[in-house]
Amino acid sequence: MQYILLLHAAEGGFESMTPEQQKQGLAAYMAYTEALSKAGALKGSNRLRPVATATTVRVTNGKTQVLDGPYADSKEQLGGYYLIDVPDLDAALSWAAKCPGAGHGTVEVRPIWDMSDY
Amino acid sequence: MSQQITSIEGDEQARSTADAVARRSYGKLVAFLATRTHDVAAAEDALSEAFASALADWPRNGSPANPEGWLLTVARRKMIDAIRGQRYTDVDSEGIASIADVLAAVPAADIPDERLAMMFACAHPAIDPGIRAPMILQAVLGLDAARIASAFLASPAAMGKRLVRAKVKIREAGIPFRVPRREELPGRLEAVLDAIYAAFTEGWTDPGGADVVRRDLSEEAIYLASLVAHLLPDEPEALGLLALLLHAEARRPARRNRDDEFIPLSQQDPSLWNSEHIAEAEALLHRASALGSIGRFQLEAALQSAHVHRCRTGTENWTLVVQLYDALFALVGSPVVAINRALAIAEVHGATAALDAMPDLAVDQRLAQYQPYWVVRAELLFRTGAHAEARHAYQIAISLERDPAVCRFLERRMSALPA
Asked: I need a surface site. Which of A3, A53, B310, B370 has the fewest CB within 10 A?
């Protein structure tokens, strides 16, 4: 089954770290990505630029509305994701717990609705 | 005419065979189907359709030699049909084929018992804690939402919705149906034990054991508790739960007299108690205490043990009982424990102190519908001489009681109040 791990965290945390801490933080993510890849579980992964760069689009009565900012203005923001393929939820939760993001934010685990089902 | 009579007899026989199989095998059959499809609701639906087919078929063709296997064969066919019939938009043809293969793989004569695996799926950390026990009661024991709702002080409609939501989550989130590995087991165990306890207390509300389905519920709970205790011999709370249930079950024969009147613990005849159950419970409790980790079920079993000891020997031990309730209340903090603790306090410090120790109706409104709250309140008010208030509390308690024998007992207590 495929799951997406959505990494939510307070923005600016990384920028406020010392260069040494930033190096360690990046190394932790690289090691985690490597472990997922070696286990054959990694389908995709990306880090997102800060919400200051986000633009929201909504179409109402045929009119396109474009707004500056993210969908939800909350303290913790979506900062990246891992798309993984594992046997069941226990495996997905176990990978989520190992994710560095779980240590400095929240990891939401969502099953993918496989479009080949249609 | 004679044919009609035969048909009615056949109907009755088919119904009683179906009832017997339902009681013995319901959870096992649901677990078999659900473990292979991850779909508890579809398994329950398929099985209930299979039971309906049995009631139509067995009177005509006679009950089969292996009714359990017959039901499983029909239920898995119904389940495959339901999946093929696009009941699910999220299963492709390959998925249908593989589900059909998996369902057909095991011979109906040799059905493995996977109830425990299903219980751990229902009690998974990804499931809302409040719905885990109701899920197990429904999936393993076949209780309907209305009855579960009454046991958990909830509305049937709300309980039904929550059960549906939890089943969808199990299926769509890919929650595994397996017994957790040893190292992750203790943390997962509490919800399973809670559910078994809830199943037992639901059966316990029929103290005479006259209602067969209810009595079987207690027996099934004891069976499940034995199964868990056997699987986890070093888990003190699993042993504690079984000890607690055996203690309570041991006294069942003494809870009613020949006229089916309710007999409170203090007036029971200890010679009617099942001494084998009591001995087994004491041995389990001893083993559990040697493991050095106290918990809710061990404390409750120790309380039962203390009551039994007092009644058998005539030695007062209410101070110990209050201490055990203090420890239990510190651990659980539930109003139900506070009510029982108040009764013990009455024996040591008197009824006025006990009334002060009762939980506050203004703080927890659910108590207004909780029969034991009004019974204990009535008894304590009686003892303090507040007769008018006691009468009022008895009236509420009687209006909330389902068991006619307990109603008669409470009416006798109320009539003992000075006019």
From this structure: A53
